[in-house]
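Shipment paperwork, digital attachment
Item: protein structure file
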Amino acid sequence: IFHLLDAVGIVHFANGPERSRFHIALDLMQAAKELGCNLKCEKINPVPSVQFPMPAQRPAYTALDTTRYVELTHKH
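Attachment content:
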């Protein structure tokens, strides 16, 4: 975090490989199960984002670009 103190502008951070919303949901479900949470949902199915219309148009691919984070934190 100290390498980011002087950074100006937006710096994206994402821990690990790119994950879709579907895969994030699967990860959360797995973590909840490991914590012993009583879940009503037993299975998560992938659904195309076109089935969830939003007021603002969104791009099909929305992974964060962490290049700037890597540049700022790995040069030391």
